[in-house]
């Protein structure tokens, strides 16, 4: 929904240079293009808790009307995000959470539910029995903690699947690759490897590829559309499966707008998820390509409207000058 009121929305992103977060930002900008009176300030903390804290302080000093934040690690960011909330500046937390629950709204998928779904899928695939490897994300991130908790709840209650190895991949392909390479013999012995995002799943795959093990079942999380990302990798048979983890950029802006315009909004905005494997990846890819194409058309149309507006404004100025000079003459 558009508004003529002027507001400043700041977005503090924990880390910026991966395809998943670029998609999130793209979505936000697209949604913001419907509200030209919103000033949007974006800060990327590059995976650094200190830096993110500092950036949020600076945003506060600058003066903002609302903060959207994806906190790097929960504990270290809780204090500063709480202080924003306590200053009565609305806070929308997205993807990852702080430890306190002091925010107006959360936008993101339910990571605990994703972990459970992954566990059920693994049990089903293994027919209830086997040994798996787990690759976790950065230790203090709520997404990693909650995914692990959900996964373990399901596996613990089944009691028939062993955890043969756990590595801490930091959410990064390269880190995960290096650690997997160091543990390659143990990795080889697992029936399934589950990495808590697709990038780390790719890292494990890279290590396996080096020893000619291309068939090992590796599962990721995100299932991001687009070239070189998770969804495509499933279609090509490179990843065994992944769980959809929507970025929620559009919903985060919509929620922010509702708060600023004093409209009703929900505190928990949980985005849907599902298991994507060989059976449905093709269909998902087709549909996401189609949506991407439509988005492209919308962007083009928006550009046209902007150009028309500029021409119109220019003509209005010329006309004003003309009228003024006529009156003066
Ligand atoms: C991107 C990412 C995703 C993951 C999410 C967890 O930076 O690592 O791959 O699902 O963050 O917060």
In short:
The protein has 11 helices and 12 strands. With 329 residues, the chain is an alpha/beta fold.
Could you please describe the fold and organization of this structure?
This is histidine kinase. The model has no long low-confidence stretch (mean pLDDT about 95). α1 (about 20-30) runs parallel beside α10 (about 250-260). This protein has helices at about 20-30, 50-60, 75-85, 110-125, 140-160, 175-180, 185-190, 200-210, 230-235, 250-260, 280-329; strands spanning about 5-15, 40-45, 65-70, 90-95, 105-110, 130-135, 160-170, 190-195, 215-220, 240-245, 270, 275. With about 325 residues, the chain is an alpha/beta fold. Strands 2-1-3-4-5-11 form a six-stranded parallel β-sheet, with helices on both faces. β8, α8 and β9 form a beta-alpha-beta unit. It is built from eleven helices and twelve strands. Helices cover about 50% and strands about 20% of the residues. The protein binds beta-D-fructofuranose.
Question: Numbering strands along the chain, what is their spatial order in the largest sheet?
Answer: 2-1-3-4-5-11
Radius of gyration: 23 Å
Distinct compounds present: beta-D-fructofuranose
- Terminal CA distance reads 46 Å
Backbone shape: elongated
Q: Helix amount, in percent?
A: 40-55%
Count of extended strands: 12
Could you spell the SSE succession in H and E letters? Answer: EHEHEHEEHEHEHHEHEHEHEEH
Number of helices: 11
- Average per-residue pLDDT, rounded, comes to 95
Question: What class do helices, strands and sheet pairing give?
Answer: alpha/beta
Major β-sheet annotation: 6 strands, parallel
Low-confidence sequence ranges: none
Strand content: 15-25%
